[in-house]
Amino acid sequence: MPLTPLQHDSSYGELDQVLHAYAGLGADDTPERPSEALAAYLRHTWHTRPHALAAAEAQLRSYARTPPGPLRLRLGEFYPVPDVGLDEDAVRDWLLLLADHLRRSIEAGEVPPPCAPRTHWEWHARFPELGQLLGGWFSQDMPDESEDHDAALQDYLDTTDRSLVTRLAGELHELLALGLDEGEYTVGLTELGLEVDPPDSFSHGAWLVALAHAVLAAGGTGRQE
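Below the sequence we write its predicted structure tokens.
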């Protein structure tokens, strides 16, 4: 019988978060140093949901100690570990290594200093609503769906719940507060789903400032339930 959402989240939910942090990255952790993916997970989770670290450590260790057989995976009764480029026999040791890194970080109180996101997963974990805006309204389909950038933004404002518009305003100002250079803004917006150039005469950084002003000026607008 396939896992129910409750069974998945209670047994594998935080393990799933850890492994999603490896999307597009190598599982190149060593006993001395966590990988870039695990470092991103640690950095974001310490500053947003520190209580989740212990759950992740326990779920990683439990899965490594009791791996599922092929039949249970085929029936959907067990969480399937995504392909991270390791042989099946090496996955168990790798999961235990991740658990060791998490335990060491928790017990030593090693909180990574805040900084700009460094991985695709971290960009979306930190700026989820901005990713929703850029990936949904400023993808390569934008020229066919909207007259221009302003029209695309207005459509987002008209169809999105007011609380999410408020969240977007906070994320835009948080991103600007990082004080990134133009190249870093370009990388960040691309990671978050932007597939079109900013309006004419705008750099990526300047357009981000204009977006922040426009969303803040919208204030209480946005769809109400």
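Residues 88-108 form the longest helix (21 residues).
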